[in-house]
Amino acid sequence: MFRHSILYFLYRKLKYAYLNDRSPLVASIKVTQRCNLRCAHCTWVNRITTDMPLERWKDIIDDTYRRGCYIIFVEGGEPTLRDDLTEIIKYIKSVGMLCVLFTNGTRGLPDCDLDAVWISIDGSHSSHDITRGEGTHEKIMETLENNPDNNTFSMTTLSKTNAGDIEELCKELSATSLNGLIFNFMYPYKGAEGKNALSTEERIKCAQQILKLKKDYPKIASSDSYLRAVGQPDKSCYPWLLLMVTADAKITHGCTVEPAEERDCNQCDMMCGLESSLGFELKRDSVNFWKHINIDTPLNVDLVPDWALRLINGRKI
């Protein structure tokens, strides 16, 4: 389908560059805010304890498609707590969008056609369990063993708890069935343990370490462009690329922090906004990062000359 193709991405890029179109590309839907864990840094869990019915979510999915999104991240809370999760995923696919499940990985995975699965793994065995609860790391390893053929990635949110584990984690996870390792940085939400978030200098140090480790651990999927942007005051971010729907159907077109609290861009190096923005700027490695989640691509961006990228961008790259 056209929306699954890099050509749709380029079409939207041209609309922005020359028509100033700012409709969203990426949607995140919190199909529940119930969760089986109590992670130290989470600001979302149990804010809303009643799940909306399937038919309401179908209407919302239709709306995200009409707005221009090509992909939906299904998250929570813990989305696998919904008995009808498979039906939600099937409906997303039926309307022509890609679907990625974002889960804590402790309850197994649904048997359905997902384009990718992102599992939160916040450090090696001990540091992960400190953040997410005793025994959770072992359950995730069981999930990976039982689902070796999924297009599965780890999502590691770095904080003071696990910043010292980066190389150990890369070594440990590289030996699993994971297709890639994605890194993120904790945002200091006021309602959670914000004091555990890394300082700007600490985030830069971690990002530089990950860059160096990519040679030895090729499963690291985070783009060089993202890692080099971490901590920089002039980093690119286009929050309007994102659309978030919370479990009570409140829609935010823009920064994913804002449904919880007023954003502070100086404190933010979250990958959701930065990898999306860098890909939208056609940074070659960031485009290739998104190709990991099964975007059919007849176009190899590595072969596109700089003059063509400048034409598409409508400005210097």
Outline of this structure?
The protein is of the alpha/beta class and 317 residues long. The chain has eleven helices and eight strands. The chain has a single domain (23-281), classed as TIM Barrel.
**Assigned CATH architecture:** Alpha-Beta Barrel
Stated plainly, the CATH topology is called TIM Barrel
Distance between the termini: 29 Å
Major beta sheet, strand line-up: 6-5-4-3-2-1-7-8
Going by helix content, strand content and strand pairing, the class is alpha/beta
- Based on the structure, what is the oligomeric state of the protein chains? single chain
CATH superfamily, by name, is Aldolase class I
Number of domains: 1
Radius of gyration, in angstroms, nearest whole number: 19 Å
How would you describe this protein?
With 317 residues, the chain is an alpha/beta fold. The protein has one domain (23-281): TIM Barrel (Alpha-Beta Barrel), CATH 3.20.20. Helix content is 35%, strand content 13%. The protein contains 11 helices and 8 strands. The protein has helices spanning 6-19, 54-67, 85-94, 125-132, 136-146, 166-174, 200-213, 224-229, 271-280, 284-291, 306-313; strands spanning 26-30, 71-75, 98-103, 116-120, 152-158, 180-185, 242-245, 251-253. An 8-stranded mixed β-sheet has the order 6-5-4-3-2-1-7-8, sandwiched between helices. α9 crosses α10 (284-291). The chain is globular, with a radius of gyration of 19 Å. The two termini are 29 Å apart. The mean pLDDT is 88.
Keywords:
TIM Barrel; 11 helices; single chain; 35% helix; 317 residues; alpha/beta; globular
